[in-house]
Amino acid sequence: MENKLKRPFVFLCTGMSFDGKISNYKKDCSPISSCDNREMLYDCRVQADAVMIGGNTLKLDDSGLTVKSEERRQKRVALGKSPEPIKVSVISDANYLQTRGDFFDKGDGRKIIFTSSQTSQEKIDEIKKKASVFVTGEKRVDIEKALEILQNEGIKSLMVEGGGELIASLLEKDCVDEINLKIGNLLLGGRTTATLVDGEGFDALNAKKVEFLKVDQYPNFLIIKARIIRD
Ligand SMILES: NC(=O)c1ccc[n+]([C@@H]2O[C@H](COP(=O)([O-])OP(=O)(O)OC[C@H]3O[C@@H](n4cnc5c(N)ncnc54)[C@H](OP(=O)(O)O)[C@@H]3O)[C@@H](O)[C@H]2O)c1
């Protein structure tokens, strides 16, 4: 079927605590349930042409964004995809970005960085040794333009892991199609701790609405699949 979107299909795959936090007050890559495992995350990555994270997540977590097993790599190849998803990050000011670490060095997935004019040409040239770099936006990455570029790069399905600022930005631009949410049994609290959707927030008129598609219950967490309803 012809893809009429000017952007990839965008699905979220994120874990949050029972009280809606996606990190903890120390900004650690925190478990959200007791006896946590990340199998759902790795399985979701199998379905995605590319996986996107926000700039803070890149700096704080520095994840390799790989599928973690040979079996999943093979599954991707059987689906006609590269063995590992393309890794994507949006970071407005990349001048202090470390270009060494798991995101840049782990696995064999291609890397793409979106940044703004805030990043110096010298730094862009340094990042280009490890990743493709696109400058979209003056002060902040133009997220719609970034999605259009990803579409032009042949990416049909984009998985977004977080954090809350990136997810809010995508929702504000009506650029999210599906949400896969793992809700853990821990309450993490913290008034400034990142939540699933941060940003400025929506009023009653502009709040986004979902249709629940599936709920699976496990001893320490729930997995919920939902789709964004567009009127
Ligand atoms: N539990 C999970 O599944 C999960 C998954 C991912 C992340 N996390 C957690 O999320 C936390 C980070 O979340 P966060 O909300 O602070 O940050 P984030 O969403 O990871 O990154 C936001 C950053 O990206 C930059 N950015 C550039 N263009 C943007 C745009 N158009 N829209 C939005 N952001 C843009 C922003 O920079 P400017 O403000 O300079 O523009 C901002 O600093 C980490 O603690 C991480 O562990 C959890």
Structure overview:
- With 231 residues, the protein is α/β, with parallel strands linked by helices.
- It has one domain: Dihydrofolate Reductase, subunit A.
- It is 24% helix and 24% strand.
- It is built from 7 helices and 9 strands, in the order βαβααβαβαβαβαβββ.
- Strands 5-4-3-2-6-1-7-9-8 form a 9-stranded mixed beta sheet, with helices on both faces.
- The longest helix has 10 residues, at 143-152.
- The chain starts with 8 loop residues before the first strand and ends with a strand.
- The mean pLDDT is 95.
- The structure holds NADP nicotinamide-adenine-dinucleotide phosphate.
- NADP nicotinamide-adenine-dinucleotide phosphate binds at residues 14-15, 22-23, 27, 29, 53-57, 60-61, 90-93, 140-141, 143, 161-166, 169, 194, 198.
Instruction: Based on Cα principal axes, name the global outline.
Output: globular
Encode the helix/strand succession as letters.
EHEHHEHEHEHEHEEE
| CATH class assignment | Alpha Beta
Beta-strand residue fraction: 15-25%
Largest sheet: 9 strands, mixed
Task: Tell me the number of helical segments per DSSP (H or I, 4 or more residues long).
Answer: 7
For the record, give the distance between the C-alpha atoms at the N and C termini, rounded to a whole number: 23 Å
Low confidence ranges: none
The side-by-side strand order for the widest beta sheet comes to: 5-4-3-2-6-1-7-9-8
User: For this structure, what is the CATH homologous superfamily?
Assistant: Dihydrofolate Reductase, subunit A
Give the structural class.
alpha/beta
Q: Which small molecules are bound?
A: NADP nicotinamide-adenine-dinucleotide phosphate
How many runs of DSSP E, i.e. beta strands? Answer: 9
Q: Classify the fold: give the CATH topology.
A: Dihydrofolate Reductase, subunit A
Q: Just name the CATH architecture.
A: 3-Layer(aba) Sandwich
